[in-house]
Fold:
Amino acid sequence: MSTSYFYLINLGCRFCILNRLWKLLPPGIVALPDGSSSSEITVLVECIRLLHAELSGLLRLFSLGYGPVILIYFTFAFIHALVDIFLIIILDNSSVKLGILSFVFYIQYIMSTLSILWIASWIIKKKKKIISYLRLTRISELPTETKLQVKIFMNQISAYEPNELTAFGFFNLNLNLFISILVLMITGIATLVQMKEYWFMIRLNNLMTPQFNKLE
Structure:
């Protein structure tokens, strides 16, 4: 996971640099008498556009490469948590006790999940920030070459829009995912509590409790 953090933070910082570079352009990216010429502004806009496309492509490669890994990690960690909760709720508390390693696992899982989701949300925010700059631009007042670059830039952003950070296309990596996981966890716990008095749960409890007593 540390490699993923480093890679994502690196991409996010590069998007920040592009946003700062865009702010250096004249207001409305219109050439001023004592400033850069229209051709220089056009070249700078084109460079920003190409760099933005390159970073978006790298972000897509990360999503394709690490997406399955993140999907498997989240899935198995979620299943592991549900199994532990199942054992605690369905079986007697005296029979099943969580060790310190389990608590360490849950803390590590929560922190790593929050970290990667926060970083992913931060990157997407920085990536989309330049859209607000483009929308503030009055295209009708721009020279033909600059106007063409701005239009290509907007179409380029629209083309890369679906290629967000995803876990192999199953879900987007952002802070909303943590809320979804939390809701699923609460729903699962509530379902287990409601099913605790069912006859097959009672039978399962009677079958499994002696096995855990032997382990103790």
The radius of gyration is 26 Å. Helices lie at 2-23, 38-90, 100-135, 144-160, 175-195, 199-215. Residues 211-216 have pLDDT under 50 and may be disordered. The CA atoms of residues 10 and 73 lie 22 Å apart.
